[in-house]
Amino acid sequence: MEFVRKNWIWAAIVLVSVGFSAAGIAKLMGVPMAHVSFAKLGLPAWFGYFIGVCEIAGAIGIYLRKLSALAAAGLVIIMIGAVGYHVAFDPLTNAVPALVLLLLSGAIVAKRRANGLWARAT
User: Fold this and answer.
1) Angle CA 60–77–25, to nearest 5
2) Tell me, what's the pLDDT at 91?
């Protein structure tokens, strides 16, 4: 149990990085399903690609100790938008993956800030 308590952050980082990497790659490859939300929100097509780049950068950045809190905070912002989209335009059950990624990213921010790493990253 002690091992889990000390290392849960790494499980969260891996889950978040896999989720955001997959979503970012889908957006950069132009998968139509990954871009529907931007069209429904009236955003330009390039914004989907921009978010894809941000997702991949965040997925990499959370592994870098000095950038981990900032990268996770950026991912939290993206997920707030995703959850908001699902609440407004989709059934709430579709918001569950976005909500899970939001909570895990928030936990990474909280853990890294608690370790005093936030000040070093800025």
Assistant:
1) 40
2) 79
